[in-house]
Amino acid sequence: MAHALALGRRGMGRCWPNPAVGCVIVRNGRVVGRGWTQPGGRPHAERVALDMAGAAARGATAYVTLEPCAHHGKTPPCAEALVEAGVSRVVAALRDDDPRVSGQGFDKLRAAGITVDTGVLSRTAAHDLAGFFLKTNAGRPWVTLKLATSFDGRIATATGESQWITGPEARREVHAQRLRHDAVMVGAGTARADDPSLTVRGFGAVHQPLRVVVSRMIDIPLTGNLALTAKEIPVWICHGPDASQDLVEAWTGLGAKLLPCRLLGRQVDPLSVLQALGEAGLTRVFCEGGGALAGSLLGAGLVDELIGFTAGLAIGAEGLPAIGAMGVDRLSEAPRFELVDSRPCGADVLHRWVARSGD
């Protein structure tokens, strides 16, 4: 199952709206087939593994990180494929919450006389597939918020200089994290100030995550990197209902996808943004700021994971804070996270936190 989970992670960022599933088929102690969900969500992991195994699948055990699907979509159900292949046992990490499956895949297997065992490495699988479950049950993707700051929590000097607070190893890790997510998201302020490309670099020719900008008025340069590359790498803009129709049409003409969202006060409602992204199929979003967007997501309790890179320098109170106003008056109102990883990353420190259960 650990091998199946590792395989499943290869599909992260590439197979939405489907889950990133892994499958390993074992016969007489030997791996005869393996697979993971392919780009665009199909073929599914089980189908890939069965095709590799061929006749060796008969009498074998299939280890799969999520309950095999039971419904007919663009491909036949994986539960039926496992039955037809003649596997004798299926070991699954988790049951699928999708109402089109939700136990029916297991039922099909058991009805065919296949032994089904569940719950193996379920906690690890639940983390890996958390974005898919959030989209299915809450209608929004998993949100990872990345912050690269000085020791005193600043992301730029008072003059706006920010390149580079952290070192090359931290920047490479950020690109690796982008690869594992469906989309990279920033606010309009970051898009204007940094003119980012938000692409994955340094890993050769790889699949690029789509780029999301949250901008109430769509006040983003029409001549910037995002605009110039929108036809090659998708750009989605989440905007308010009061945005200029001329700008909507201009960005649409450049190849961008425009997603109208509700307002919350004077800002775009962060929940509305995530609901729009979830409805469009996204399961994992990597948010890279800036401060206003980070503050609004944290304040609304919509950050599931924090990844911080802390550098050994101090900028001072006049520097730009990493997180904007959140309206927190008491510590009991502040969102709390649990530390799950902390390690050196070049000259910096990487620390990863996940939202506490129930927070």
Comma- or semicolon-separated keywords:
359 residues; alpha/beta; nine-stranded mixed beta sheet; five-stranded mixed beta sheet; 12 helices; 28% helix
Radius of gyration, taken over Cα atoms and rounded to an integer in Å: 22 Å
Helix content: 25-40%
Order of neighbouring strands in the sheet with most strands:
11-10-9-8-14-6-15-18-17
Could you name the ranges where pLDDT drops below 50 across 5 or more consecutive residues?
none
Intertermini distance: 30 Å
Mean pLDDT: 94
Oligomer: single chain
For the sheet with most strands, the description reads:
9 strands, mixed
The overall strand count is 18
Q: Structural class, from secondary structure content? A: alpha/beta
- β content, as a range? 15-25%
List the helices and strands in order. Answer: HEEHEHEHEHHEEHEHEHEHEEEHEHEEEE
Short overview:
With 359 residues, the protein is of the alpha/beta class. It is built from twelve helices and 18 strands.
Describe the 3D structure:
The structure is a single chain. The protein has 359 residues and is α/β, with parallel strands linked by helices. Helix content is 28%, strand content 25%. The protein has helices spanning 2-9, 45-53, 78-85, 104-111, 122-128, 130-138, 168-179, 188-194, 225-228, 245-254, 270-279, 291-299; strands at 22-27, 30-36, 61-64, 89-92, 115-118, 142-149, 154-156, 183-187, 210-214, 235-239, 257-260, 263-264, 267-268, 284-287, 305-310, 320-321, 337-345, 348-355. A nine-stranded mixed beta sheet has the order 11-10-9-8-14-6-15-18-17, with helices on both faces. A five-stranded mixed beta sheet has the order 2-1-3-4-5. Strand 10, helix 10 (245-254) and strand 11 form a beta-alpha-beta unit. Helix 3 (78-85) runs parallel beside helix 4 (104-111).
